[in-house]
């Protein structure tokens, strides 16, 4: 399984357009080699370099396993958005207070849909996927202000 973006390479800089210093919209993403037994997909975007704790920027779950991309500034029609650490149920772009941070886009292939409501927190989503991950893939972007 693989997740890529046409606008940044793995461990490359996320363009300003997709951050709080730009348009603050999600970058386009592509998914490949989703396992045939996957029943749903989840995407979690996190910043492990945030002060105090990992900061969650975007939470999507219950995406159709046939989803092979996410367009710029969009959410797949089957996806449910969780509540990020900015207290919003939408993408919140990189906005580090200092230094260069890593932003990890993790795609999960799951054996079934998650029994969660829109606005679920990262902790709730991570707990719900435990034991249900068939495969996972990551792409890491960096950003500093």
Task: Please give a structural write-up.
The protein is mostly beta strands and 145 residues long. The protein has one domain: PEBP-like (Phosphatidylethanolamine-binding Protein). The chain contains one helix and nine strands. Strands 2-9-8-4-5-7 form a six-stranded mixed sheet, with helices on one face. The longest helix has 8 residues, at 122-129. The chain is globular. The model has no long low-confidence stretch (mean pLDDT 97).
Topology diagram in text:
Layout: E1 2-4, E2 12-13, E3 29-32, E4 40-47, E5 55-63, E6 69-70, E7 80-81, E8 100-110, H1 122-129, E9 133-144
Parallel strand pairs: 2-9
Antiparallel strand pairs: 1-3, 3-6, 4-5, 4-8, 5-7, 8-9
């Amino acid at each position: 399984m693989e997740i890529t973006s046409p606008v940044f390479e793995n461990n490359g800089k996320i363009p300003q357009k997709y951050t709080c210093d730009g348009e603050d919209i999600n970058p386009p993403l592509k998914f490949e080699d989703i396992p045939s037994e996957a029943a749903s997909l989840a995407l979690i975007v996190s910043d492990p370099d945030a002060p105090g704790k990992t900061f969650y920027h975007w939470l999507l779950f219950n995406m159709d396993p046939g989803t092979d991309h996410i367009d710029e500034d969009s959410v797949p029609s089957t996806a449910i958005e969780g509540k990020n650490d900015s207290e919003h149920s939408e993408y919140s772009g990189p906005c580090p207070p200092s230094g260069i941070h890593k932003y990890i886009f993790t795609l999960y292939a799951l054996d079934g849909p998650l029994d969660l409501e829109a606005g679920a927190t990262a902790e709730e989503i991570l707990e719900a996927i435990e034991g249900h991950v068939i495969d996972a893939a990551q792409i890491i972007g960096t950003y500093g202000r």
